[in-house]
Design a protein that fits this description.
The chain contains 14 helices and no strands. The protein is mostly helical and 358 residues long.
């Protein structure tokens, strides 16, 4: 909104010409989301406590987690509010990709909110059933995939890291890929959100990485130089990712160990879906698997644990997802969290290194 109000003033005042630059507006989006989430945090915590919106802990989880019962949850509403306001203020709202990003973010946010609300009313850790969640998530992802597939300038090609000439056109099968990436990333981040700040930190790093990738993919000269797919208009997603970075930073102030509030499914489900959508729109689906490698490992640990127990009645890990395994091995919770953050930062650097290896 402010972009449309302020940029036209550059005709009379050259100072306002700065608003045409994506990088400048991305910084403003980061700061806006950060300020909103940081300064509204205490009020949100207080209101959640008044409404008794509290976390219910699984009985089969680590016993020391039981002391976290009663901590305010659904803090993801603060994250979503901060992101949406920042994007609406500083992004070019005529950009198609911005609206796809907001659609996925708010759509999955609504699903997460419904799941959290069901847990609250039942006063336990059981929310929506798996079938209900998957049906809703696939529905939102399908809507986004159809809009992308039918958009005139968006191609249904798949880019591979290291191979600049390998870009097969998936045709209608691209719709299935979009659904798989968005829904898969959403649930992977949700599984990771088991310790104080464990998901928030990697989401922040991943969003920061894709903030750079979106800018590169939207600049025809840089994309040509790096030999990565150029996606006209995707540069505006830099503002979208910047808003995620800022909102996550502000929220992390209250979510870091010991957490004053949790994001709940409202936050984790929507943030994961947003990252998946950005990866699709910037044609960096495979780099998402590298940048979000931690989310992949967390998900695989659950899959392998369940499969091993069903087939051989044996557990691979002491508990899944894998962060609980390290807890039960004696690692202090802050140690698990910080080390997983470091791993994510390393993976982000690894993803950037692939840009020149083509």
């Amino acid at each position: 909104m402010l972009y449309f109000l302020l940029y036209p003033l550059h005709v009379k005042f050259s100072l306002f010409n700065v608003f045409r630059y994506i990088t400048f507006r991305a910084i403003l989006a980061i700061l806006t989301a950060l300020v909103i989430s940081f300064f509204c945090g205490p009020w949100v915590i207080r209101k959640l406590k008044e409404l008794q919106v509290q976390q219910y802990i699984r009985d089969d989880g680590p016993k020391k987690h039981l002391e976290k019962a009663g901590t305010p949850t659904m803090g993801g509403t603060l994250i979503l509010f901060s992101i949406v306001v920042a994007v609406l203020l500083w992004a070019d709202l005529s950009n198609f990709f911005i609206w796809i990003g907001l659609l996925v973010l708010t759509g999955f946010g609504a699903i997460g909110f419904a799941d959290d609300y069901r847990k609250l009313t039942r006063k336990n850790s059981q929310g929506l059933t798996m079938k209900q969640k998957m049906a809703c998530q696939i529905g939102v992802a399908l809507g986004a995939s159809l809009l992308l597939y039918r958009y005139p300038t968006f191609k249904s090609t798949l880019a591979f890291p290291f191979f600049k000439e390998v870009m097969p056109d998936l045709g209608a099968f691209y719709i299935l890929l979009v659904i798989l990436v968005i829904v898969g990333t959403s649930n992977a981040v949700n599984l990771t959100d088991g310790l104080d700040g464990l998901a928030t930190g990697p989401v922040l790093i991943s969003a920061g990485t894709f903030m750079v990738l979106a800018y590169l993919a939207g600049n025809v000269k840089i994309a040509s130089y790096l030999q990565i797919p150029y996606v006209s208009g995707s540069g505006e997603l830099t503002i979208f990712c910047g808003a995620i970075v800022g909102a996550s930073m502000g929220f992390l102030w209250y979510n870091t160990y010991p957490a004053q509030m949790f994001m709940g499914d409202t936050g984790s489900v929507s943030l994961g879906a947003a990252l998946g959508a950005v990866a699709i729109m910037t044609k960096q689906e495979f780099l998402l698997a590298i940048v979000g490698g931690l989310f992949v490992v967390e998900t695989l640990s659950v899959i392998f644990q369940v499969a091993s127990y069903k087939l051989w009645k044996k557990r691979i890990f002491r508990m899944a997802p894998i962060h609980h395994h390290f807890e039960l091995k004696g690692w202090a919770e802050p140690k698990v969290i910080v080390r997983f953050w470091i791993i994510t930062f390393f993976l982000a650097l690894l993803a950037f290194s692939t840009l020149k290896l083509r």
